[in-house]
Amino acid sequence: MTAFRTEAGHPADATPSRGPAPVPPLADLVIRREEPGDAADVEALSSEAFGPGRFARAAERVRELHPVVESLCAVAVLPGAIVGSVRLTRLPNDGGLALMLGPLAVRPHLKGRGIGKLLMRNAADAARREGFSAIYLVGDRSYYAPLGYRPVEAGRIVLPRPADPGRVLVLDL
User: Fold this and answer.
1) Cβ neighbours of 60 (radius 10 Å)
2) DSSP-assigned letters across all residues of 33-87
3) Which of 4, 23, 28, 163 could covalently link to 58 via disulfide, CB atoms 3.0 to 4.6 Å apart?
4) pLDDT per residue as tens digits for the range 95-119
5) Strand 74-78 vs strand 81-91: parallel, antiparallel, or unpaired?
6) Domain boundaries along the sequence of the chain
7) Quick count: other Cβ atoms within 10 Å of Cβ 31?
8) Strands 134-138, 98-106: parallel, antiparallel or unpaired by DSSP?
9) Rounded to an integer, what distance in angstroms lies between the CA atom of residue 132 and that of residue 122?
10) Domain N-acetyltransferase, which positions (predicted)?
11) How far apart are alpha carbons 18 and 32 in whole angstroms?
């Protein structure tokens, strides 16, 4: 099990100025591998973060067609609660060594505190250790570019549903 605790002074430690719910300190945040017993909590988190529209996304169709790599799926946990999750699905690209990231979900009242970025870094490090070649995703370039993601060259990947080409990004590992 890989655990990661935030460091003092990290942006994840800042207290947000929005949201009515009290926001817990992130000093006790742990990133760990998703376990079978987490499935219901992870699904509820995805529903809370994305709503029913999540089923229409290209990445969701990829997950329907290809297996999730269980060893790379992780959750962010504060005492007693899963507050974030990331899943990676194997793609047929690059001889089966490519992945599709998603969903990346964080409890809405904790967004902007660095949890998603911690999950992303953890996922990339784990995928690199396991010998994967690339991680693809469909998302906001301004969020993912600081993590090393860049636009995909035309023809490098074909998604099972239409996606805005400007939002299809890749991190070469």
Assistant:
1) 20
2) E--GGGHHHHHHHHHHHH-GGGGGSHHHHHHHHS-B-GGG-EEEEETTEEEEEEE
3) 163
4) 889 999 988 999 999 999 999 999 9
5) antiparallel
6) 11-172
7) 23
8) parallel
9) 14
10) 29-173
11) 27
